Amino acid sequence: MSPDEYCQQKAAQSGSSFYYSFLFLPPERRRAITALYAFCREVDDTVDDTADTAVARTKLSWWRNEINSMLNGSPSHPVTKALEPHVATYSLEGKHLQAIIDGMEMDLNQTRYLDYAGLQHYCWHVASVVGILSASIFGARNKQTFAYAEKLGLAFQLTNIIRDVGEDARKGRIYLPVSELQQFGVTAADILNARHTDNFEKLMRFQAERAHRCYEEALALLPHEDRRAQRPGLIMASIYRAVLNEIEHDGFHVLNQRISLTPIRKLWLAWKTYVKG
């Protein structure tokens, strides 16, 4: 199996909505973004699939060294071998790749965030920086496009947090800011024990409204000259906002289920957004 095939398999197996946004890219850009996505999956799985925190830290340290090796022209992992040819082509910066690893390590260091500012810091590392790298691969001529990508990454992560509240709670993690739980009269025990209350629904509606604002703010930042090139991000926004709308329509029953779209619906949204331009 070639490095590109390894990354393609990693992307396809994940079932992620990101996969659908790659379908309409030219081959070279598609290989680059698939390799970046595979890297994100590898380091994320390092944390999620490793029960021993010390072992997870060791693996993340290995990935830090591997990124440095890749930047020096000697990658050893299939993912970095696939990514290395695209680093110079799309101006992918090592500091951004390392920042993603920093974000994964944050999950080993804390399971709560006191306020929204703290949560935003986490979101920048695990999502916004991925948006910046992706925008480079898709093709960004205007510097403002990176501000759009950064904000869109935040919107995606806020949507993930809303969707995965129950799943994260079963891992002992609560990403909803403590200050906002207190504001709406929801306790950590309510979430950890999957108690869906009126207050919980109000809290989640507050989270959803903020996520919608982030989408609107991101789209307002996208320069017209880069809109066509950035269609993969717009496809993702279409799919993620559809998920968010489904969660809202369902009354935010996310503590005991994970709401998602069918593959055919994702494909339809991707095609519709691509054609719209």
TrEMBL record:
It is an enzyme of class 2 (transferase). GO terms for molecular function: transferase activity. It comes from the Bacteria. It holds the Pfam family SQS_PSY. It comes from Keguizhuia sedimenti. Its EC number is 2.5.1.103. Keywords: Transferase. This is Presqualene diphosphate synthase HpnD.
